[in-house]
UniProtKB/TrEMBL annotation:
<dbReference type="InterPro" id="IPR000644">
    <property type="entry name" value="CBS_dom"/>
</dbReference>
<keyword id="KW-0406">Ion transport</keyword>
<dbReference type="InterPro" id="IPR051280">
    <property type="entry name" value="Cl-channel/antiporter"/>
</dbReference>
<keyword id="KW-0129">CBS domain</keyword>
<dbReference type="GO" id="GO:0005247">
    <property type="term" value="F:voltage-gated chloride channel activity"/>
</dbReference>
<dbReference type="Pfam" id="PF00571">
    <property type="entry name" value="CBS"/>
</dbReference>
<feature type="transmembrane region" description="Helical">
    <location>
        <begin position="355"/>
        <end position="376"/>
    </location>
</feature>
<dbReference type="InterPro" id="IPR002251">
    <property type="entry name" value="Cl_channel_pln"/>
</dbReference>
<keyword id="KW-0813">Transport</keyword>
<feature type="transmembrane region" description="Helical">
    <location>
        <begin position="490"/>
        <end position="516"/>
    </location>
</feature>
<keyword id="KW-0812">Transmembrane</keyword>
<dbReference type="GO" id="GO:0009705">
    <property type="term" value="C:plant-type vacuole membrane"/>
</dbReference>
<protein>
    <recommendedName>
        <fullName>Chloride channel protein</fullName>
    </recommendedName>
</protein>
<feature type="domain" description="CBS">
    <location>
        <begin position="686"/>
        <end position="747"/>
    </location>
</feature>
<keyword id="KW-0677">Repeat</keyword>
<feature type="transmembrane region" description="Helical">
    <location>
        <begin position="463"/>
        <end position="483"/>
    </location>
</feature>
<feature type="transmembrane region" description="Helical">
    <location>
        <begin position="522"/>
        <end position="542"/>
    </location>
</feature>
Length: 764
């Protein structure tokens, strides 16, 4: 089966299929906000003659260079991602800070209408700028980017997701959108940013910019780029929360589909570099050299350092917190999925509608953020307040807003603020009586629905921080209702954030460590573990985690670690379909060009027959890119004979290396004369002579495990009987998609197997 499509097939309407609960079985997906073709990545090493020659020719010095470059690039990933993360926070805190200070000053002067106008127009312009550059410059930068990176690490290659243009729009657009008071986060875009940085560094150099250093060319393959992208995604989380260990575990638990101990060391090295650089930069900001930055953003980490003591009687409320958090998280995922599908209807109408929707969400958000605090009653300033009350300016727990002197608006302290400062206020200690429970409830409901509405707009937008804010307000509200003597409201806010994260994102270990590093309180570990386990278990009974749902909506052919039970009933011979295109070991150029022009396959079996072999026998597999390289090289044979050593000496292994970003070679770009079309090409030295093969009687479930765990792009299916042709078909990622399988076998009842798997988890 082919694992890519032509541009013409992009016209096949994927979006209408998204209105139903289906994944895309065709190799097209929504990248950012546009419909694009996707392909699989070549993680398998093609063991042809040139690979063997290249590896044997490497000296100890070259092997040292290769290993050294791996660590050096990981170091550069850590440095660059930490600088970008710091710049993002610095920019957001200052842009949003100036906006809030100007608006607050107008309100202090009694100019409420003008304050509302400035606040709304500023947010609208920032959102408009973010949506315009995303829609017209880099549509792949829309959203958080975590589903795209996760799909890439699973073996799915989508165009432009790691380009320099996408990186720049991701950074600038996210700064602008977050500063525009949209309820979105920076963590998801930082993961995508880190992956972009890693991918660009791992391109193997660039002829355009003169970066042709031989050392860089060691990374002209998907395997090393995959490892670098994994490092980049971990560095992105580490830069977002100053959680180096949490970043490593996040990459292991959520992002990566393949893991090795050597990769663990390099990822840990990258996140350690991020932590050290951020610590140095933040020390500079604490001295007052970063404008309004310094009390929010990355300084969230030490929000609760008081020693917590709790007893057995506190366990039941925590269990309840986790149970309800799991239900709320599953509802959140359900509603977000419905909203994203509804947005797809609007996006079908054109780019203008995408921008209009973003602007409408911005205006609606500004009206809520500015208007809701007027519904809250003013609270008298506490006599033992640890900071100035009321707060004049941007940060703090005691926003004056419209209140008289000596009073503050508790809802404004939460809602008329940046997300980072809202988290700090909710998590902070000794604040049990500073927020009214109705204000916290209003804030929770507002965050819950605004974050759902804001995520799907055409702008770089994350989910991590909005989910933390929503969960923290939910936890604090529960703590205020229960009134525990041992666990104060700040601790309940932390546990609430954990329960909502577990219910929505379904991670346990990485979230636990991230929140511990964020709050700097190891004593919360037992409670947090219980909350995460319960919330994830409860939510798993209803739907999938949020990133898997988004990948399904986008149509990424993601291969999950579990096997659907109905796959055990099928063999690989039941799902492979034709037509099968095969090349002879020595093939005529005209035949090769015709096959390349009339098919979209990326791998072609090479079969030898008489006189090279007494009967038809499978020799290996050759990739489309390698054939195109051979055609462009124009080293052809006038008769069907094998290449001699002098002819092979004209080729270099670097010529067959995987291209970096940008458009690859196309058969339409190769112009051949009539004389050349009648010549021959020996494919043997360039074919992978040891491709993965399976018998046609192997179960589909077993083949899926092999395909995913090894990271394959093709599996050749061979017959069990020697009396038949040497090849039955080719398995690609497309053949494992449930929609393809159930389309071929409509008698299979997927829903019945789903119910059975819930009752009998061991089947997975």
């Amino acid at each position: 089966m082919p694992d890519s499509t032509t541009e013409d097939s992009v016209a096949v309407a994927l979006l209408p299929s998204l209105r139903h609960a289906t994944n895309s079985s065709s190799q097209v997906a929504i990248v950012g906000s546009n419909l694009c073709p996707v392909e699989s990545l070549d993680y398998e090493i093609a063991e042809n003659d040139f690979f063997k020659q290249d590896w044997r020719a490497r000296s100890k010095t070259q092997i040292f260079q290769y290993v050294f470059m791996k660590w050096l690039l990981c170091f550069f990933v850590g440095i660059i991602v930490s600088l970008i993360g710091f710049t993002n926070n610095l920019a957001v805190e200052n842009l949003a800070g100036v906006k809030f200070v100007v608006t607050s000053n107008m309100m202090l002067a009694g100019r409420y209408s003008m304050g509302f106008f400035v606040f709304t127009v500023t947010n609208l312009l920032l959102t408009l700028f973010a949506s315009v550059i995303t829609a017209f410059v880099a549509p792949a930068a829309a959203g958080s980017g975590i589903p795209e990176v996760k799909a890439y690490l699973n073996g799915v290659d989508a165009p432009e997701i790691f380009s320099l243009r996408t990186l720049l729009v991701k950074i600038i657009g996210n700064i602008s959108a977050v500063s525009g008071s949209l309820l979105i986060g920076k963590a998801g875009p930082m993961v995508h940013t880190g992956a972009c940085v890693a991918s660009i560094l791992g391109q193997g150099g660039s002829k355009r910019y003169g970066l042709t250093w031989r050392w860089l060319r060691y990374f002209n393959n998907d395997r090393d780029r995959r490892d670098l992208v994994t490092c980049g995604s971990a560095a992105g989380i580490a830069a977002s929360f100053r959680a180096p260990v949490g970043g490593v575990l996040f990459a292991l638990e959520e992002m990566s589909s393949w893991w090795r101990s050597a990769l663990l060391w390099r990822i840990f090295f990258s996140t350690a570099v991020v932590a050290i650089v951020l610590r140095a930069l933040i020390d500079v900001c604490l001295s007052g050299k970063c404008g309004l930055f310094g009390k929010g953003g990355l300084i969230v980490f030490d929000v609760y350092s008081e020693n917590a003591s709790y007893h057995l009687g506190d366990v039941l409320p925590v269990l309840l917190l986790g149970f309800v958090g799991g239900i709320l998280g599953s509802i959140y995922n359900f509603l977000l999925e419905k909203v994203l599908r509804a947005y797809n209807y609007i996006y079908e109408k054109g780019v203008a509608w995408k921008i209009i929707l973003a602007c409408a969400i911005s205006i609606f958000t500004s009206c809520l953020l500015f208007g809701l605090p007027f519904l809250a009653s003013c609270q008298p300033c506490p006599a033992d307040a640890l900071e100035e009350c009321p707060t004049i300016g941007r940060s703090g727990n005691f926003k004056k807003y419209q209140c008289p002197p000596g009073h503050y608006n508790d809802l404004a302290s939460l809602i008329f603020n940046t997300n980072d400062d809202a988290i700090k206020n909710l998590f902070s200690k000794n604040t049990d009586f500073e927020f009214h429970y109705l204000s916290v409830l209003v804030f929770f409901i507002t965050c819950f629905f605004l974050s759902i509405l804001s995520y799907g707009i055409v702008a770089p937008a994350g989910l991590f921080v909005p989910v933390i804010v929503t969960g923290a307000s939910y936890g604090r509200f529960v703590g205020m209702l229960l009134g525990s003597k041992n666990l104060n409201d700040g601790l309940y806010a932390v546990l609430g954030a954990a329960s909502f994260l577990g219910g929505s994102m379904r991670m346990t270990v990485s979230l636990c460590v991230i929140l511990l590093e964020l709050t700097n309180n190891l004593l919360l570990l037992p409670m947090m573990m219980v909350v995460l386990l319960i919330s994830k278990t409860v939510a798993d009974a209803f739907n999938a985690n949020i990133y898997n749902l988004i990948m399904k909506i986008k149509g990424f052919p993601y291969l999950h670690s579990h096997v659907e039970p109905y796959m055990r009933q099928l063999t690989v011979g039941d799902v492979v379909t034709g037509p099968l295109q095969v090349f002879k070991g020595i093939e005529k150029i005209e035949t090769i060009v015709h096959v390349l022009k009339t098919t979209n396959h990326n791998g072609f079996p090479v079969v030898d027959g008489p006189p090279l072999a007494p009967a038809s026998v499978l020799y290996g597999l050759i990739l489309r890119d390698h054939i195109l390289t051979l055609l462009k090289k124009r080293v052809f044979l006038s008769s069907p004979v094998a290449f001699d050593s002098n002819t092979l000496a004209q080729f270099k292994a670097d010529e067959f290396a995987k291209k970096g970003s940008g458009r690859g070679d196309r058969i339409e770009d190769v112009e051949l004369s009539e004389e050349e079309l009648n010549m021959y090409l020996d494919l043997h030295p360039f074919s992978n002579a040891s491709p993965y093969t399976v018998l046609e009687t192997m179960s589909l479930a077993k083949a899926l495990v092999l395909f995913r765990e090894v990271g394959l792009r093709h599996i050749l299916v061979i017959p069990k009987s020697s009396n038949r042709p040497p090849l039955v078909g080719i398995l690609t990622r497309h053949d494992f998609m449930p929609e393809h399988i159930l389309g071929l076998r409509p008698t299979l009842s997927r829903s019945r197997w789903k119910r059975l798997r819930i009752r009998l988890p061991f089947l997975s």
